[in-house]
Amino acid sequence: MSVPFDGFPLKRRADGEYGEDVEARASAWMTRAKQGDEAAFDALTQALRERALRLAQGWVGSREDALELAQEAFLKTYRARDTFRDGEPFLPWFHRILRNTCYSFLRGKKRLTPRSLSAHEEGESDWDIVDDTHAEPGAALEQSERAQVFWTAFKRLSARDREILALRHFEELAYADIARALEIPEGTVMSRLFHARARLRRALEGKLDLDGGTA
Fold first, then answer.
1. What are the strands, taking DSSP E only, across 29-154?
2. Among 24, 48, 84, 147, which one is least packed by beta carbons within 10 Å?
3. What is the predicted pLDDT for the residue at 114?
4. Residue 187's domain is classified under what CATH number?
């Protein structure tokens, strides 16, 4: 089987919903929600629900768990709306809430274990996610053997590798958008992607032929 490296099995929806435009709208919706506009928060949830689900699934594996965690993250966001600072970009703020929600879930299940600082080139903390044998990749990933092979390899990666690859290849965000979401320099985004892709390639060695792409 052969697949271009950038052609990951999961893609963001094709309507071009994300980017600077949705970031500005999301921030505006959150500001209005903070002022008591419940319809604005409903619009915000509708616009970001699929994105939140895919990111959560990248961490926890199970689509069912990811759905519950995404909903929990939106509930936490609503409850914390008064702490959202006017003019602050919403997406990085929400990304932290979603990530912390997923990490708390994984810790509660004893599926999140610290990884040594030397395990990553940047010398920053990271975590291994213990595979949950009951986790299912979901209908979108069950459609082909190639996708199943990819998902198995993906689940061998660390939490931070999954995050950076999901933002770039599931969501197809630009480097600048990822940098804003993670609050890191674009150069760090490129470095993390380079090493995460290399680790995914090694995990897929002998299972898929990865040709083409930009890795």
1. 112-115, 126-129
2. 24
3. 86
4. 1.10.1740.10
